[in-house]
Amino acid sequence: MATLRAILFLLLLAVRLPGEDLPLMQLVEELRADFRWEPYRKIGTLARGDTKVTFRLSSDSLVINHVEEKRAGKIELKNGALYASEAVAAFLRELFTTTIEGPTISWVVIDPGHGGKDPGTNHSHTVDGNTIRLVEKEIVLFVSKELQALLAARFPDKNIILTRSDDTYLKLEERVEIANRIELESEFESIVFISVHANASLNPATYGYEVWYLPPEYGRGNLLAENLAGIETEELRQILNTMKDEEFTVESVLLARSILNGFDSTIGGLSKNLGLKEESWFVVRNAKMPSVLVELGFVTNVAEARLMADTAHLRKMAVGLYNGVTAFIEGFEGSNLP
Ligand SMILES: [Zn+2]
User: Residue 237: how many CA atoms within 13 Å on its side-chain side?
Assistant: First the structure.
């Protein structure tokens, strides 16, 4: 069948008339659309997924999804074949290409907190005469690397990166810059940013995992300003800025909830879900994308410290994070599918 289609395609190319018009069937093939033609009413339909375009022969308007009318040019009958004007072809290509692409998370930036001269929180416990010492920068690097490996195996087409992959010191601004510098190839692509930390409390009884996101009242100011350079009025700019903020917040909350569910599934029986928190953490606030800050557990709680001193437990934490991030990605990418 593929050969037949190829031959048909070449034939259609061969019969292309001189001038600007394009054989409609060639366009239908190119767009992978279904085509129907009603010869008596002289009405044709191109459809794929949720998009349907109806035209009447020699009329210069196209009807999109039964409602929207677009004056793009004419489709004409010549020598028994339908031909689309260059303008109609360009419009249909744009319409069908746009609807083909859904939202995609093309980058996951995992940020292991602290590093180098900044150990983060750390604590020693004496258990059965042995001393266990927990250092945040080490725990979070281990879990982050595990998470990266799991996500990279599951999503070979996505870029799964770490802000640091060894014991390096990075300023907070540098971490966010790594993510903010990423250039996306299309408006349908998104990045998510996950900062991984371990917690400490003055109360040694406190334990559990929690995920922080940016509260809606924290505007991200003019962080998006450079993307809006073409927009004239300050008012519109502010509205758009706010909309983007809200979009990020909604997605950040969904991601945070999903990660908590992921932890529940792997370490829920050993630790405790302390829930979703709102905070204006620098790394979260300055990221121009859905972003969360994960606190794996408390190094100051002896039971949790014992768990986190065990790499098998840290791997479970990574699997919990992985489950949460994967569920979020699948929901996000599936949300706009037909
Ligand atoms: Zn930290």
Answer: 14
